[in-house]
Amino acid sequence: MLNLTRRRIFMDLDFTTMPMADVFRYREDLKSQLEALKKRQADMNEKLALRFGNEAREKLRDDNKDFGSVTLNEDEYKVKVSIRQKVTWDQEGLVQTFMNDMSEDDAKHYAKITYSIDERKYNNAPPAIKDKLQKHRTVQVVGTSVDITEAANGS
């Protein structure tokens, strides 16, 4: 259960003026708690998958599906179980099939081709290559991360 007192204390903390040693200790404590909670949640999810997985797979099989979501009812609760899939394709085999075994129209309809450049290669590219590629590059900031470590010997 969430301890409302702890939550209120956290909301009252002013990290902008708090001594760095206190910020560091508080943040390390939060990291530790978060790791422990993530592990507990993963353990719980594994047990819930064991509890509801077979019934969910049976319901999916009844609908001629191997993957998807089903809702189960237990007591007065609805339990949504999602069995996800990850599909990978043999890239070289697909290229051969599209080029040799399908019409051009079918290949265009089914194939999805994307191009990308490894960021390390782009950063190390000669200026002439970078200039050609730059107009096709979009960079978005997706978040900010702050990590605090203790400096060795006060440096």
Secondary-structure element string: HHEEHHHH
| Shape designation | flat
Q: Radius of gyration in whole Å, from Cα?
A: 26 Å
* Biggest β-sheet strands, sense, barrel: 2 strands, antiparallel
Number of E-state strands: 2
Termini distance?
41 Å
Level of helix content?
40-55%
Q: Mean pLDDT, nearest integer?
A: 87
Strand composition percent: 5-15%
Characterise this structure.
By secondary structure, the protein is mostly helical. The chain has a domain at 88-137. It contains 6 helices and 2 strands, in the order H-H-E-E-H-H-H-H. It has helices at 4-12, 20-62, 91-101, 104-110, 119-124, 127-134; strands at 68-74, 77-83. The model has no long low-confidence stretch (mean pLDDT 87).
Summarize this structure briefly.
This protein is mostly helical and 155 residues long.
Topology:
Elements: H1 4-12, H2 20-62, E1 68-74, E2 77-83, H3 91-101, H4 104-110, H5 119-124, H6 127-134
What structural keywords apply?
155 residues, mainly alpha, two-stranded antiparallel ribbon
